[in-house]
Amino acid sequence: MRLIQIAHALTLHDGASKFVQKLDGMFQKLGYDTEIFAHKLDERIQNDHIQTMDKFDGTAEDIVIYHMTTGTSFNKWVANYPHRIVLYYHNITPAKFFFGNAWGSWLKCIQGRRQLKSIVKNTFYAWGASEYSCEELRALGIREAKPLAAIVEPEKFLERPLVQAIYDKYHDGKLNLLIVGRGVPHKKQDEAIEIVRYYKEHINPKVRLIIVGNMKPSFAKKLHRMVEQYKMQNDVVFAGSVSNDELCTWYRVADALLCLSEHEGFCVPLVEAMVFDKPVFAYAAAAVPETVGRAGVILSDKDPEKTARIIHATLEDEAVMKQLAEERCCRLKELSYENIFAQVKQDIAHIVSRWGENNK
């Protein structure tokens, strides 16, 4: 028996792709024979353990774990796989967020949710990236759906070398608010600009917004137009797609992380900011509140004035900042490698014990 993980696509910097490889390491540590297959494989990934699907050799004795992230023609293969599977659901962004601005993504998300209904019929056990994701799976009829959080290893971040040029330029006494994520409309980088605009005009002129993440061109144009209109060219940094060393440097430069996204299945940047001991201000959408827990400030709305004043009041309150720092430590312990490994050990033992009866 092998534990075989399958994904539609594995790419170099993608969070889901990294998770697949970390989970594989845990399975091996537990003594299982493992394999990883991908329908599409980024050639930059240097891992001889990962193969393309044309080499797939799974049998009835193997447990297949499929990582679902979006709609794709490959999902039909999964739904029709002759043996029941284990599903890891990373969550699919609701299609409405792409309507009118990214028709390809809109179609993939609609397709994905339809295909999910077929895949769950062939699933006997499921993990979700959050309780939020698990609730969606249970609503589709999966009896056993359990949250399994992303694997975050603080030492892997903290040991990254500083990119001195970035640090020297931007660690200059200004208040740096950081937002990390894809540049698409539902991530709401535009609202972050509005918040920083208010902050600059009414609270503290020495404030800067740093936007990290690959940008959809049409959305990037909108953001740049906003910055020019508000004359904030010196107050907003578009860092774009960055290396791991650069990302960790931006976290070190930041005074706080801002997350205004309308949908997150987990949101790894929230935890990454905690690793660097940065306060988190996040809008209460989808899985965000459960990811943050008590370790950050959850925003009930995103009114620029209200949000800017909440950020300022929090950062100026030593007692609140101390409490948040303590809560960050507690949350990181909950999400530690040791805790996730202990859960994986327990869950896999349960899956293996039920494997035979579900494939008779």
From TrEMBL:
InterPro entries xrefs: Glyco_trans_1
Task: Tell me where in this chain the Glycosyl transferase family domain is found.
Answer: 173-326
Q: By its UniProt entry, which PANTHER family does this protein fall under?
A: GLYCOSYLTRANSFERASE WBBK-RELATED
User: One Pfam match, by short name?
Assistant: Glycos_transf_1
The UniProt entry's GO biological process terms, in alphabetical order, are: lipopolysaccharide biosynthetic process
The molecular function GO annotations come to: glycosyltransferase activity
According to the lineage, what is the superkingdom?
Answer: Bacteria
Which protein, by its recorded name, is this?
Glycosyltransferase family 4 protein
Alphabetically sorted, this entry's keywords are: Transferase
